[in-house]
Design brief:
Rossmann fold, Elongation Factor Tu (Ef-tu), domain 3, 304 residues, five-stranded parallel sheet, 2 domains, nucleotide-binding, 11 strands
Length: 304
């Protein structure tokens, strides 16, 4: 593709999983540079995690599905998002080849903003100085964005994943800049909650690669298809040990709500973890604990 009809742009490149506060800081920097030079701003990203292509056994734990990522990127105010199809041919390109063939010839990037500690190209083996030198040779001005570390906090997708895998959703949300969520459809469950007076909506997550927070009980905000405002909820992620369950389920008791929502789209946003999942000796013990969980969920949500 020739760039004659494509206006020059200021761009950045990355996978941008979760589009967290660090990503947003970088994208804001790109937008400011583009505005100052009268150019459009662009994010260049990938539909598939590059590691999946070069290491076929790798299964990512995504903070955002491809659809969620595009929505989050749009919300940053970036002018354009280019989603590249990362395949073995692209994986084999050196950084210089990628810059020449994709960024220069295909996308007409005039200025490339490299995120702090970000690398690209075959085996990610080159440095910022290499990118800058390649850029000079082909007419791309390469700059490195300053690191974003408010109060000394390290913000990365890996750090957020670790928080979620250990149940620290409040800390994860602080780095994301929004409440981490899971979306999908409501499907029939085991009906055990209903028998105890706590009917639950069983969520089938839309993308199996989406990361599940650590098993436990959480205060959540619930968006249900057809309802304008989020509803208060308490969500259990786990295998229902009191009932000797097998396999992980995501079950949400929506507070003060009784409608039939089977088959509808639902999104559960995590506010804070209430407790770990526990195997109770009797159903009555579990029921009493769930009443405590409901009160805790109400308090946590009302205090946010």
């Amino acid at each position: 593709m020739h760039t004659a009809n494509i206006p020059p742009c200021v761009a950045t490149i990355g996978f941008f999983d979760g589009v967290h506060l660090g990503h947003r800081y970088l994208i804001d920097h790109v937008r400011q540079l583009a505005q100052a030079q009268g150019m459009s701003s662009k994010v260049v990203t990938f539909g598939t995690h590059p590691r999946q292509v070069v290491q076929t056994s790798f299964v990512p734990k995504l903070l955002s599905t491809p659809e969620e990522k595009l929505k989050l990127l749009h919300e940053t105010g970036i002018d354009h998002t280019m989603v590249l199809n990362f395949d073995l041919n692209m994986a084999a390109l050196t950084a210089r080849e990628f810059m020449q063939r994709i960024l220069k010839e295909r996308l007409n990037v005039a200025q490339l903003v490299i995120g702090y500690d970000n690398k690209f190209g075959h085996n990610r083996e080159e440095s910022f100085e290499d990118y800058r030198r390649h850029g000079q040779a082909m007419g791309i001005h390469v700059v490195e964005a300053p690191q974003f570390a408010p109060d000394g906090a390290h913000i990365s997708s890996s750090a957020i994943r670790n928080h979620l895998l250990e149940g620290r959703v409040k800390q994860a949300n602080a780095l994301l800049g929004y409440n981490y969520s899971l979306g999908g459809k409501v499907v029939p469950g085991f009906q055990e909650g209903r028998k105890m007076g706590f009917p639950t909506a069983n969520l089938l997550v839309e993308n199996p690669q989406k990361l599940l927070p650590q098993n436990g009980v959480y205060a959540t905000l619930v968006e249900v298809e057809g309802y304008e405002h989020p509803l208060m909820g308490m969500t259990n992620i786990g295998n229902r040990p009191t009932f000797n369950g097998k396999g992980v389920t995501i079950e949400t008791n929506i507070l003060d709500f009784s409608a039939d929502i089977y088959g509808q789209n639902m999104r559960v946003a995590f506010v804070e973890r209430i407790r770990a999942e526990v195997k109770f000796s009797t159903i009555d013990e579990l029921k009493a604990k769930m009443k405590e969980d409901e009160e805790a969920a109400r308090q946590l949500i009302q205090n946010t």
